């Protein structure tokens, strides 16, 4: 027997039962007497003796694992001595074999890693090449579309807005920041949030929005579509900001807006919406008409903004924004009753805005008296009694000669907010009625379910307490109307 040495491990030992338990010498003797035994492993710890007719690769045991003593049977002692005399050491041969096998494994690992690295590098190059081709296609896409707004990089707009440091406002579609372009032109930069479209789809929608030009629509000057997350729109800057700051007296420094200016704003807003609904190549339903989305230039010309943005939102974000619109009181009943949304939904929202322009207040205020809390109902009552001038806010300046215009505007607003969709006029008809180009018949009384619906929009317990006594005074017909308004879910 040739003693190879201690501290060796042979993988099959973990799956083989020991032949016997004995001493080292007893294990050797058992192997010598067994014709099929070519090698034996012995454990000094467990005294287990393993015998094999042939063996493969050996290894050093893991740290903390048991090592085995290996002894290999040779043909006879004479042959071993002859080999030793000729300088042939079987131990050296064994070591050379082990080293050779180890080297072969290392080389094969290096070759495998090299192939994997080459494949990854090739894939990366292929992806970058595809992106370059897509970028070229997108540039060609922009060249084909005439009137495409200017494309800005995210870095360009970051510099223009001084890292988005001056915030002008925030809405359902994102935040708006003040900026100055390299040519000195002041702009408003909107960072869109919740965009659910890819770059090409986004640019296609931007091309539609950018192609819409009207005196009473906010002009889209440019856009940004860098990477997967940066989606920004660049609008012309409006010196007087949004309508809500002027009609609700949010800023004490702002002078009260007289009736002539309010009437001008109301007509301008109606003309902008009429263009979106009836004169665009592609009909655009705004879906978010409210004072915050009516901008005013230095001459108080109305500019409707944020049109066409609903299609850019993902479904979850669009649903959230719809809910938020409802809490502000501009939501048409069909949003709740799952009826088809059409341009008449914008007409309803416009009617609410028109009444707020006239009254200089929100359409529902629980802090007001019972008679005035729901402004549309109060306006209807004053109109019936021929006291239209009393509908104007206390700080609104108006001459007596404007009473007819005020009364006409109130009637138009009440027609716009009818629950029955077919009763609402189209926006072009609204413009004609406001300008006195056609008669305005007396409208029906607005839905009495509105106060109950509004009452659910207040969050504080104090507001709910104030509302309970007010809404309880309504008749059972109001309750029925409220149920009908909710409709099937």
UniProtKB/TrEMBL annotation:
CDD domains: STKc_IRAK (cd14066). Residues 162-445 form the Protein kinase domain. It is found in: Membrane. It comes from the Eukaryota. GO terms for cellular component: membrane. Keywords: ATP-binding, Disulfide bond, Glycoprotein, Kinase, Lectin, Membrane, Nucleotide-binding, Phosphoprotein, Receptor, Serine/threonine-protein kinase, Signal, Transferase, Transmembrane, Transmembrane helix. Residues 451-489 are annotated as: Disordered. This is non-specific serine/threonine protein kinase. InterPro entries: G-type_lectin_kinases/EP1-like, Kinase-like_dom_sf, Pan_app, Prot_kinase_dom, Protein_kinase_ATP_BS, Ser/Thr_kinase_AS. Belongs to the protein kinase superfamily. The chain crosses the membrane at residues 93-118. PANTHER family: G-TYPE LECTIN S-RECEPTOR-LIKE SERINE/THREONINE-PROTEIN KINASE SD2-5, RECEPTOR-LIKE SERINE_THREONINE-PROTEIN KINASE. Residues 468-483 have a biased composition (Low complexity). It is a single-pass type I membrane protein. Its main location: membrane. It comes from Saponaria officinalis. It catalyses: L-threonyl-[protein] + ATP = O-phospho-L-threonyl-[protein] + ADP + H(+); L-seryl-[protein] + ATP = O-phospho-L-seryl-[protein] + ADP + H(+).
């Amino acid at each position: 027997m040739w003693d190879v040495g201690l501290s060796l491990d042979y993988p099959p030992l973990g799956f083989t039962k020991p032949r016997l338990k004995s001493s080292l010498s007893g294990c050797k003797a058992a192997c010598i007497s067994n014709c099929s035994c070519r090698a034996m492993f012995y454990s000094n710890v467990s005294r287990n003796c393993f015998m094999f007719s042939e063996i493969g690769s050996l290894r050093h045991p893991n740290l903390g694992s048991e090592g085995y003593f290996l002894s290999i049977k040779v043909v006879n002692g004479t042959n071993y001595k002859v080999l030793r005399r000729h300088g042939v050491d079987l131990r050296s041969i064994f070591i050379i074999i082990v080293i050779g096998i180890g080297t072969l494994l290392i080389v094969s690992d290096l070759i495998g890693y090299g192939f994997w690295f080459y494949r990854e590098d090739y894939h990366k190059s292929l992806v970058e090449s595809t992106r370059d081709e897509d970028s070229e296609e997108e540039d060609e896409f922009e060249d084909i579309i005439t009137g495409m707004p200017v494309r800005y990089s995210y870095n360009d707009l970051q510099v223009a807005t001084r890292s988005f440091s001056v915030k002008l406002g925030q809405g359902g579609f994102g935040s708006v920041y003040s900026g100055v372009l390299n040519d000195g032109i002041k702009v408003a930069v909107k960072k869109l949030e919740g965009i659910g479209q890819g770059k090409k789809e986004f640019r296609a929608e931007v091309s539609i929005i950018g192609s819409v030009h009207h005196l009473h629509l906010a002009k889209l000057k440019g856009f940004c579509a860098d990477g997967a997350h940066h989606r920004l729109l660049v609008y012309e800057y409006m010196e007087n900001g949004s309508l809500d700051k002027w009609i609700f007296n949010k800023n004490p420094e702002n002078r009260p807006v007289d009736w002539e200016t309010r009437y001008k704003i109301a007509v301008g807003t109606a003309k902008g919406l009429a263009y979106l609904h009836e004169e665009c190549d592609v009909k655009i339903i705004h879906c978010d008409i409210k004072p915050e989305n009516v901008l005013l230039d230095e001459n108080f010309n109305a500019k409707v903004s944020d049109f066409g943005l609903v299609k850019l939102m993902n479904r979850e974000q669009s649903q959230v924004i719809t809910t938020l619109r409802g809490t502000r009181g501009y939501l048409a009943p069909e949003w709740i009753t799952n009826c088809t949304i059409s341009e008449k939904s914008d007409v309803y929202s416009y009617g609410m805005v028109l009444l707020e322009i006239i009254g200089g207040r929100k359409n529902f205020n629980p802090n007001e008296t019972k008679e005035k809390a729901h402004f549309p109902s109060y306006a209807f009552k004053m109109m019936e009694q021929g006291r239209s001038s009393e509908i104007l806010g206390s700080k609104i300046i108006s001459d007596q000669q404007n009473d007819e215009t005020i009364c006409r505007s109130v009637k138009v607003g009440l027609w716009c907010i009818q629950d029955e969709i077919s009763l609402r006029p189209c926006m072009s008809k609204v413009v004609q009625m406001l300008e006195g180009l056609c008669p305005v018949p007396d409208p029906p009384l607005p839905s009495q379910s509105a106060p109950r619906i509004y009452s659910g929009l207040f969050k504080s317990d104090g507001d709910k307490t104030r509302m309970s006594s007010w809404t309880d005074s309504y008749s059972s017909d109001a309750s029925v109307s409220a149920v009908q308004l909710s409709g099937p879910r």
